[in-house]
Specification:
Oligomer: single chain
Radius of gyration: 20 Å
Protein name: Glycosyltransferase
Distance between the termini: 53 Å
Helix content: 40-55%
Pfam families: Glycos_transf_2
Number of helices: 11
Structural class: alpha/beta
GO molecular function, one term: transferase activity
CATH superfamily of the largest domain: Spore Coat Polysaccharide Biosynthesis Protein SpsA, Chain A
Low-confidence stretches: none
Keywords: Transferase
Number of domains: 2
Shape: globular
Organism: Thermosynechococcus sichuanensis E542
Length: about 300
Amino acid sequence: MSVCIPAYNRPQGLVAAVRSVVAALPPEYHDQVDIIITDDSPTPAAVADLFAAWSGHWHYQHNAQRLGMVANWNASLAKASGEFILLLHDDDYLLPQGSTTILETLSKYGRQFDVFLFGVHLVNPHQRCLRRQIPRRQEWLSPTQALRQLLRHSSFVRFPALIWRRSLLNEVGYFDPTYGEATDLYQWLRFFAQKGVYTVPHATAAYTIHDQALTMGMFQAQTLATLGQIFAAAADLHLLSLAELQKCQCDFFHQFILAGTWRFLRRRQWQRAQEVYQLFDRPEVRALGRSRRWQGLRWLFGAWLWLMQQVN
């Protein structure tokens, strides 16, 4: 397995991500993992000491010119040599038993399945677990079942939870910068449409939620337009009926907008929260109708924001 770590000027996060791999794996596992770091930071990071006790392969590349988010992901993937790939951002990290759980699962099921979805702990910047997101069952979801889950739940896949066969990149392509910060959803769409996904009810990684996360700036109208393009691409696959796809898109957009609203509400950034919540007034969102699944939370957040307007 290749663990690809694209770095973005977060030296402490990079150290934590690397240590979560090298410190947790017994020596007998070292030859099963190679670690690739592509660094978009202004200056090179001193990482050699982190690998002092590591007998496996590792590679560090400092980008002389900043590549940007998607290009840096792809640069790390291009250097991977493992049969399977884990893309681990430098603000996320593996849990103590995460690496061994992944390797044991791949050893047992790697010949049968191509894409694996594990669980994650959602943590704050101080590594305190806020909640857990873990698949309910150990099972294979067919392409149709997998797309139904992916396109109905905006947070169905957390980045460090997904492992895929490297050869899939040759089949469907690398991350497409055309889709900006939603490019991961488009990539999972292509993976799942080809191979489905095997879900494993064990948490292997921590996914960090904080103000510096690259996703904080994605809650805007342009992202909704991009998401609309992804749903159009899903329609072209003909795996879900148009009626079912519209229902999925309605639920997805509601969850997406509410998640963005909540991120700013809990930071008491009322104006930013209001701006995100007002995405519900966009024509493309109104055309989808109201989501039964999310109507209660939508009403609650709307009432909260109205009250804050009256107070302020």
